[in-house]
Design goal:
The protein contains 23 helices and no strands. It is an all-alpha fold and 546 residues long. It has two domains: 311 residues, no CATH class; 212 residues, Phosphate transport system protein phou homolog 2, domain 2 (Methane Monooxygenase Hydroxylase, Chain G, domain 1), CATH 1.20.58.220.
Length: 546
């Protein structure tokens, strides 16, 4: 009966430990989102900086799985090369050792003090209305729960019957390869190498597991954690799948090397580690040495790792129509809202560029009475419509995460922005339709009419660039310029409408051109309104100037 109770204690301890890790990781991700963006912004083809960035991010968020999934997401979005992804993945393996070192502190009689952090954190989460205090609450709660979980796991092995049972079990499976396979399978199931490391540290600390066996368990956990990246790459691009393969190859190679070394030199390694008096730190130090040395071995061969991944997964003809693909956003990045929102900003900038291109092409078609670029405009319009829906769905998914008030406000603005861009695209599509109709009816604008709508067009292009810049840089000083340009476009529309009536009365242009002329200048005036909404969205979600 005591063994059953101890098993329940062990399971409960593992659950509390993993939940604490989740809270701590999520809190750190939200709190350090800006720093992670800066770090990822510095990524280059320098393998050393990539490894350092991967280690720093993983140590910050306390989860190599989170970092790896993030990297797979960037690779899938095409904003990170496979070589860059490989360097960050190698660094993530170093950063994850911080969790083991943190867990090793359970060897000191500090749990009662650290558990108080959980209580303090809960108060922040429950009663604070300030985002940064809620984030701090998640961090403190997670930190406290990790130590509570470790304490409960350790208590499970204080029962002599449980301890003897564990010692008996491991005496029967005291075979390195078997220990590695069991650890790999278990880590793959729970998708947390940190949890497996924590269990090993707790067991060694209680005497239920020998140091030699724990080393093989730690080695196996590093392979098992690859399951998360492989799952994350399902349905992704070929480059994202290759990033997951690099992760797997790197860890398998490290595992093979260290199994061989540790198997042959078990006793000397154990004696060297036992210089450290505390058993928990013996495991944590081995975990750190294993990951650091594996990274050092892999660094010179990163190019070969990438080539091997490309050989395993060769390029195939892309079956997905480029019109129905996003360039920057990826569901794997939603767990880090600050980074996900930045990717949305880039996707919207791309969507705005497509709408601008369509406006240019379609306007040229109206002026020249040519439908040569009809298909290009139609293809771009399909892309714009697809992006509008895809970005809107993505924003809703981000909102479902624990975003800050400022992020929620920004998300609300972006919903309106993509609708305004989509409407600009619709006007451009209408222009190309006008061009086709005018061509069939042999209707042309006079040179004076072309000059007038050309002036409106040039003003709108300037306004387009200014509005997108305001949106991207949040430069409120430029808003007054936007308002002035909108007023000028409104005046142009009124004046050019009157001018066209005068030309009709003088017989200087055909009656048939009238509806098209009014449609064009009215549409351009509406485009000016949408551009104003886009710029002023930085102050009001609806784009209102008031």
């Amino acid at each position: 009966m005591k063994i059953v109770k101890s098993v329940f204690e062990l399971v409960s301890g593992v659950a509390i430990f993993m939940f604490g890790m989740k809270l701590l990781s999520e809190g750190l991700e939200h709190g350090a989102g800006g720093k992670m963006k800066k770090l990822l912004g510095r990524i280059s083809n320098n393998r050393f900086s990539g490894v350092a960035i991967g280690a720093a991010i993983t140590a910050t968020v306390q989860s190599s799985s989170a970092t790896t999934v993030m990297v797979v997401g960037f690779a899938n979005a095409g904003i990170m090369t496979l070589f860059q992804a490989a360097s960050i993945i190698i660094g993530a393996n170093i950063g994850t050792t911080a969790t083991g070192l943190l867990a090793a502190f359970s060897s000191f009689d500090v749990t009662i003090y650290f558990s108080a952090f959980a209580l303090i954190g809960i108060f922040f989460v429950m009663f604070s209305k300030v985002d940064r205090f809620k984030t701090l609450g998640h961090i403190l709660s997670g930190f406290g729960l990790i130590f509570i979980g470790l304490e409960i796991m350790g208590a499970a092995f204080n029962n002599e019957q449980m301890k003897k049972a564990m010692i008996n079990v491991f005496s029967k499976i005291h075979f390195p390869l078997l220990l590695v396979l069991i650890s790999t399978a278990f880590t793959g199931i729970i998708q947390s190498s940190s949890a497996v490391s924590g269990i090993a540290i707790a067991m060694v600390g209680s005497g239920a597991l020998g140091l030699a066996d724990s080393m093989f368990i730690i080695i196996g956990a590093n392979v098992g954690t690859c399951v998360t990246a492989i799952i994350a790459s399902a349905g992704a691009t070929i480059n994202a799948k290759r990033a997951a393969i690099v992760h797997l190859i790197f860890n398998i190679i490290g595992t093979v090397i260290f199994i061989t070394i540790v198997w042959i030199f078990t006793d000397p390694i154990v004696r060297a580690l036992q210089i450290i008096k505390l058993p928990q730190f013996q495991v944590a130090v081995f975990h750190t040495a294993f990951n650091v040395l594996t990274a050092v071995i892999a660094l010179p061969f990163m190019g070969k790792l990438v080539q091997l991944a490309e050989l395993i997964l060769p390029s195939k003809q892309n079956q997905i129509d480029d019109r129905f693909k996003t360039k920057y956003i990826d569901d794997r990045l939603i767990s880090t809202p600050s980074i996900a929102i930045e990717q949305v900003d880039k996707e919207i900038e791309w969507m705005a560029e497509l709408a601008k291109e369509n406006f240019k092409i379609a306007f040229s078609a109206v002026v020249s009475n040519s439908d040569a670029n009809y298909q290009t405009v139609k293809d771009n319009e399909e892309s714009i419509n697809f992006l509008n829906k895809a970005i809107a769905k993505y924003l809703i998914k981000i909102s479902a995460t624990a975003t800050s008030d400022s992020d929620e406000l920004h998300i609300g603005c972006l919903h309106h922005v993509i609708n305004d861009i989509e409407r600009i695209g619709d006007h451009a599509e209408n222009f190309i339709d006008y061009a086709i109709e005018m061509n069939k009816l042999e209707v042309k604008f006079t040179d004076q009419a072309k000059d007038e709508i050309g002036e409106m067009y040039n003003k709108l292009i300037l306004m387009y660039d200014a509005s997108v810049e305001v949106l991207n840089k949040h430069n409120e000083k430029q808003l007054s310029d936007i308002s002035i340009m909108e007023s000028e476009i409104d005046k142009m529309k009124k004046q050019y409408g009157l001018n066209h009536i005068q030309r009709l009365n003088a017989g200087a242009c055909s009656v048939d051109s009238g509806p098209y002329f009014y449609a064009v200048i009215s549409a351009m005036e509406r485009i000016g309104d949408h551009l104003t909404n886009i710029a002023f969205s930085i102050k009001s979600p609806s784009g209102s100037q008031n």
